[in-house]
Structures are given as structure tokens and as C-alpha cells.
Amino acid sequence: MILITGATGFLGAELARQLVQQVGNIRCTKRSSSAIPEILKPYADKIEWVDADITDAFALEDALQGVTQVYHCAAWVSLKRADREPMIRNNIEGTANVVNLCTEMGIRLLHVSSVAAVGEAKPGELITENHHLEETAANDGYAISKLESEMEVWRGIAEGLDAVIVNPSIILGPDAGVGGSGALFETVRKGLQFYTSGSIGFVDVYDVAACMILLMNSDINSQRFIVSAENRTYQNITGEIAGNFGIKKPARLARPWMMEFSWRLAEFVSAFTRKSPFIDKVSAQTASKKQNFDNSKLLKATGYQFKPVSQSIKEVTVRLQR
């Protein structure tokens, strides 16, 4: 039996869909308050849903009975300052529970991390799996939680756990909703006028899930893989999104001081609205950084051919215009 944590999320749901189509019945955990994603409702007879929060070790242990493979996708994501410490604790504690149980029960684990947990390269160089984030107060809570969660997996590996880690870049897909990469599309659609000078990697959600399955079913272990299709500048990506919407492309450069003002304004507004800020300090600073990722390790290991990012952008914009 295969189990997925976080199957109600964007990536987890796509992974569950692909696995059901390939192997049939699977098991997925969710919180009792979580709704089943629309893309998984057609497979109701193939998915066994179990209410088990990753911080509840006893519920997880019950859910893992008879399981041979675990895809750990569950994680709390928030930009709220008030959520920083509880999010870090939740993600680390939850991953520690998954790692401990998989180690004890001899279950193979594929852990979903993020490029947020990968360090930076020297100017002009590509970021590889050999780079590691240095934990500082300047890092956002999510990045720290993913870094420390990875450390839990490496601890498990040292104790005999059979595991592999993936670090996806920004994930695109028509089912992203209004969060994550979906927020970028909505922002451009509403008439974004500015672009930033940075760059980062992008990848389709279908490709991330497909690569996870390939790695899980390989004999590879004790390694991490950057999962990213293409490196794009923010000017290029926002311009292409605007072009697909048939609207004017962002034409003004948002300089670092403007981004500094934006995150401070966002925090001020968030304090009154109690909603997540539209941009946080780290995101604002990162928007002007050039973060280009090397995917050659994954390509060599799997031979996978990524979907062009332009195709992903087109699919998202078509869905949003229905």
C-alpha cells in the first residue's frame, strides 16, 4: 500500500491522481477539517482517506499499517508573522513523526522539501543539490521549517531510513488556486505594472509528481534532487503571463527600495486585517535576486523530459479565463 500525506494540497492531489491511475488503490491522510480536492473526487472508490494530522504520531502509526511507500507532502505554509514559530514547530515535528515511524516500520520515504531549503550559489553560477541554506533570522519561517524538516530526514537516513528528497522550484498548474504560484497569475491578471530584476526556477505540477514517482520506484536513496524545468526572469514570466491573458505586460522595474516599501506596507496592512501579507520581507528581497537552478542531477538519474514552462503558463491562463 502507498500512503500520501498532504494529498489535499496542490502537489499532493496531483500525485494522488497519477498514482491512482498507475497502481489503483492508495491511502491518503488529511486533517479532519480538510476538504477533498475536486480532481480526486472521481477516484473516491480508489482512495482510502484517513484523518491523521502529521503531528499526531498515534494516528499516523495507525495510518501506516500495511504501507510500504510514503510520499510526505504535508506542510503548513504561511507568511503571517504570528504563524512563523508554530509553523516551524508543526512542520518539523510532523516530519520527525513520519521519519521515526518509517524508520521503525521499514517503509521507504520520499520527502518533499523545497528550493527554499537549498542554499545560494556564487554570482553567475547555478544552484545545485550541494548548496545548503544557512539558518539565520533573515530566512522566512517556511524556509527554516523545510530546512529543519530535511535535517530530520537526513537523521533518519543515518539511522537506516530508506529515503530520497526532492526540492521543487516554483510549481505551476491550473489547479493551484489563488495561493502559491496561482497568486502570481491573479496579480498579473489584475493589471500588474511592475516587474523585478530577479530570476528563479519554474516547473509544472504534473512533472514534479511524475519525477517523485520515478524516484520512489528507483533504487536511489540517501540523495536530494532539485526538480525544476526552466530558469526564468520575473520580467519574462510576468510578461508571458500577461501576453496569454491578452493584456499589457508589466513595463516598470520595481527597484529594491520599492520592494522594501512594499513588504513593510504589507505587514502594516496585515496587522489590521489579520490576513496573510501580500508579500513578506524575504519574498520582497528574493524578487531581486538571480536564483538559477541546475536540474542536471535529476535528468541524469531519470532521463525525464520536462513540459515547457510556456505550455504550463498557457494551461493556467486558459483555465482562469473559463
Summarize the structure.
A 7-stranded parallel beta sheet has the order 3-2-1-4-5-6-10, with helices on both faces. A 3-stranded mixed beta sheet has the order 7-9-11. The protein has a two-stranded parallel ribbon with strand order 8-12.
Q: Helix tally?
A: 11
Distance from first to last alpha carbon = 38 Å
Please state roughly what percent of the residues sit in beta strands, choosing from under 5%, 5-15%, 15-25%, 25-35%, 35-45% or over 45%: 15-25%
Mean pLDDT: 87
Q: How many strands, what sense, and barrel or not for the largest sheet?
A: 7 strands, parallel
CATH class placement of the domain at 2-169 and 202-228 and 292-306: Alpha Beta
Protein name: Nucleoside-diphosphate-sugar epimerase
Organism: Mucilaginibacter yixingensis
Domain NAD-dependent epimerase/dehydratase: 2-218
GO molecular function, one term: aldehyde dehydrogenase (NAD+) activity
Molecular structure report:
The strands form three sheets. Strands 3-2-1-4-5-6-10 form a seven-stranded parallel β-sheet, sandwiched between helices. Strands 7-9-11 form a three-stranded mixed β-sheet. A two-stranded parallel sheet has the order 8-12. It has helices spanning 10-23, 57-63, 84-105, 141-158, 181-189, 205-216, 234-245, 256-273, 281-286, 296-302, 309-320; strands at residues 2-5, 26-30, 47-51, 69-72, 108-112, 163-168, 170-172, 194-195, 199-204, 223-227, 230-233, 252-253. β4, α3 and β5 (108-112) form a beta-alpha-beta unit. The longest helix is centred in the first third of the chain and has 22 residues, at 84-105. It has a domain at 2-169 and 202-228 and 292-306: Rossmann fold (3-Layer(aba) Sandwich), CATH 3.40.50.720. It has eleven helices and twelve strands. α3 (84-105) runs parallel beside α4. It is globular, with a radius of gyration of 19 Å. It has 322 residues and is an alpha/beta fold. Helices cover 43% and strands 16% of the residues.
